[in-house]
Amino acid sequence: RVKMTSKGAVYVAIAAAMGNLLQGWDNATIAGAVLYIKKEFHLETQPTIEGLIVSMSLIGATVITTFSGSVSDAIGRRPMLVVSSLFYFVSGLVMFWSPNVYVLLVARLLDGFGIGLAVTLVPLYISETAPSDIRGTLNTFPQFTGSIGMCLAYAMVFIMSLQSNASWRVMLGVLSLPSIAYFVLAVFFLPESPRWLVSKGKMDEAKLVLQALRGKEDVSGLEVGGETSVEEYVINGDNELSEDYVQEKDEIKLYGAEEGQSWMAKPVRGQSSLFLASRQGSVAAHMMDPMVTLFGSVHEKQYEMGSVRSMLFPTFGSIFQGDQQKPDNWDVESNHEKGNLSEDETDDNNLKSPLISPNGRQAGEITTATGIGGGWQLAYKKTEDGNNAGGLKRIYLHQELGIESRRGSIASLLGPIPGPGEGDAVRASALVSRSVLCLDGAMGQNPIQSGLIKPPPSTKKGTSWSDLAEPGVKQALIVGVGIQILQQFSGINGVLYYTPQILEQAGVGLLLSNMGIGSESASFLISGVTTLLMLPSIGVAMKLIDLAGRRMLLLATLPVLLASLIVLVLSNIIPMGSVPHAVISTISVVVYFCTFVMGFGPIPNTLCSEIFPTRVRGLCIAICALTFWVGDIIVTYTLPMLLTTIGLAGAFGIYAVVCAISWFFVYFKVPETKGMPLEVITEFFAMGAANKKAN
């Protein structure tokens, strides 16, 4: 396997998003091919068969989604992507060969299997392999590549439609060619998800994947280790080696993930300020789900501290900034079991490694601090109870504002040790849970120097439906399923359906006719141009989703969707000339499309891939994807009925109401997840649900 740089996660996301490019390609080609299929098989009087040819891929995607999640939790994400590419390839060959309608229907069903796997698993896979700081940007790649696929396919169909002997079999069969590239990438380039590997206890493989993706091997932070508690510490530099050091009562030692990192921490009695801050605010804030305010309190603290990026760990950088200088053997999993061998004597595959340098940390030594994203720092402390002897607690630290936070950051406490009486300290909230590291059989004067990595508890039990009853998972499912339902009923399919008619009214069809382009070719060209307009807006979303955040982008774009739909409704109610009507409708449709792909298009799948625990992420993603496909089918088949009963204004009025409901749902129910490690997100959901139940 090729050794990648720190940009490996970006390349992997692009390769995985090939599955969505093929989905977009198929959506466009079937729209063009069905016109020629009707003529060959004389389906003008059989609209049911015609509808089945188009919708069979939706049926296939819905069917395979019902079990794709649980299977991916069992055998891995990468094998399912390989299977997706095979479905694309085989379906393309069968469509190219199809001698009759019934074989074509089978081919379309196989095509739907490939689409369902790609749409369900690609966002999940990208989220599990991406660094938290650019996870949102990488998760817009599927939307971007899908639109590129549609543009390329419409261009191909348009060119072929200009010929007198256009073949629908070639239009559909070409799908097999790019699917070969997808298969090659999935087999020879894409690694398995490191989080899935950790959840199955395959620590050595996870280390190799992380080294390829991010230039690091620390797997200990990738698994939620059971029940999580919230604590708060006042953290000072480690003065243990100084001559005048006297350990205070209740003081404990925390160890960082890098060689030589350590702090002295004193627990703060009472409830964490994370929860206290989340309960403050206006009347509207009190109406929010406690989960939303809990997440929001963390992001508000980051803004108050003067930077959107981490103030705790100023040396943490973006994947786009290239490789950073790190101390030798900086990682908790990267060193030799003895901990004192030279660099050329170390073994990357060894599962034993020192947690800190065996020689200890010298007073005055400056050690860099590398965070895990979103202002969070990973640390450890030894367990003290007899039942967990030799174990470690994993701690996610997040700095709090307060009178104790005078020095500036936890990272600064790793610098020169302050003199007596200076009283420099940092106050931090901590999410504490069991770690996959343990100290059984550790040797040496400092026993924590050789931690043995053990499989996480979740590897002993498989995924079961009972896991969905956990409060945190249930809360996440409410968010995921809810936002998928609202996305489908927000009007995107209706606007897509109506766009060619609007542009025809605007005179585009007449202009193309004067250029010698037939009505069928003109419709393909119009659809291609409409899709092309989406690409710059998706680029804006790629830029903003990790800066402004998912929640803020939804709250900003949903009112624009609502306004554009209202304008479309009014333009069909208020009497006006054909030219003003066409101009207003065209502007509204373009604004709707561009705004949708900036927010409500990519963000629901991004959120759903972030908010579930690793052990049930595939199953929960499948439930959300199933909701997506069922909603897609319902909207697609009800739109013609709505148009014939309540008209265009009535149908778009319903979609406008859904957009308004969506805004309130996002405001009160959807938390902000930008920049936060997946493990922290899922632990927040678990804690927020427990806190909500307790209140």
Automatic annotation (TrEMBL):
Biased composition (Basic and acidic residues): 325-341
Family listed: Belongs to the major facilitator superfamily. Phosphate:H(+) symporter (TC 2.A.1.9) family. Belongs to the major facilitator superfamily. Sugar transporter (TC 2.A.1.1) family.
Molecular function terms from GO: transmembrane transporter activity
Family matches, as SUPFAM superfamilies: MFS general substrate transporter (SSF103473)
Membrane topology: Multi-pass membrane protein
Taxonomic lineage of the native organism: Eukaryota, Viridiplantae, Streptophyta, Embryophyta, Tracheophyta
Protein name per Swiss-Prot or TrEMBL: Major facilitator superfamily (MFS) profile domain-containing protein
Location of the region described as Disordered in the Swiss-Prot/TrEMBL record: 324-362
Organism field: Ambrosia artemisiifolia (Common ragweed)
Chain ranges of the Major facilitator superfamily (MFS) profile domain: 12-674
Cross-referenced Pfam families: Sugar_tr (PF00083)
Record GO cellular component, one term: membrane
Places the protein is found: Membrane
Transmembrane region(s): 48-67, 79-97, 103-126, 138-162, 168-190, 522-541, 553-576, 582-604, 616-639, 645-668
Record keywords, A-Z: Membrane, Transmembrane, Transmembrane helix, Transport
